[in-house]
Amino acid sequence: MVSKLLALEAYPSLKDLDFRILRGVELNMRHHRWVPLEDIARFARVDVETASFRLGKLDNWGLVVRRSDIGYIGYQLTIHGYDALAIRALAKKGVIEAISTTQIGVGKDADVYVGVTPSGEKVAVKFNRIGGRTASRRAGYHGHVFQNKRHTSWLYVSRLIAKKEYDALLLLSPIARVPRPLAWNRHAIVMDFIEGRELAELRDDDLSREEAESILDRVLEEYLKIVRFGIVHSDLSEFNVVLTDDDILIIDWAQHLTTAHPESYEMLKRDLNVLINAFRRRWRVDRKFEDFWPEFKSAWEESRGEGNDD
Ligand SMILES: Nc1ncnc2c1ncn2[C@@H]1O[C@H](COP(=O)(O)OP(=O)(O)O)[C@@H](O)[C@H]1O
Ligand SMILES: [Mg+2]
Question: Which CATH architecture has domain 94-192?
Answer without folding.
Answer: 2-Layer Sandwich (3.30)
